[in-house]
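We were asked to recover a plausible sequence for a given structure. The inputs and outputs are reproduced exactly as logged, with field labels preserved.

PROBLEM: sequence recovery
POSITIONS: 82
GIVEN STRUCTURE:
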């Protein structure tokens, strides 16, 4: 992990603005989402891309009761339940 030399102050609500250049680099648009990770006193952000819990595919994913599943795996599960 390397520093990119940018420091941001948090506002009264704990928010900060991610620089536009960084958002563009990460492919984050105004409706994008980031996933937050913590390791000791280090906070890491990663562009959030929902992936299927079974096959890790990011194509045709659906959210079923707070679990991300792709349609192909959902169909396989459906056949198991028949
Ligand atoms: Zn899947």
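RECOVERED SEQUENCE:
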């Amino acid at each position: 992990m390397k520093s990119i030399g940018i420091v941001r102050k948090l506002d009264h609500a704990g928010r900060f603005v991610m620089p536009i250049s960084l958002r563009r680099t990460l492919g984050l648009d105004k409706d994008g989402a980031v996933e937050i990770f913590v390791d000791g006193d280090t906070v890491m952000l990663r562009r959030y891309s929902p992936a299927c819990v079974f096959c890790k595919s990011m194509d045709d994913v659906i959210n079923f009761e707070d679990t991300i599943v792709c349609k192909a795996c959902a169909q396989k599960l459906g056949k198991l339940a028949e």
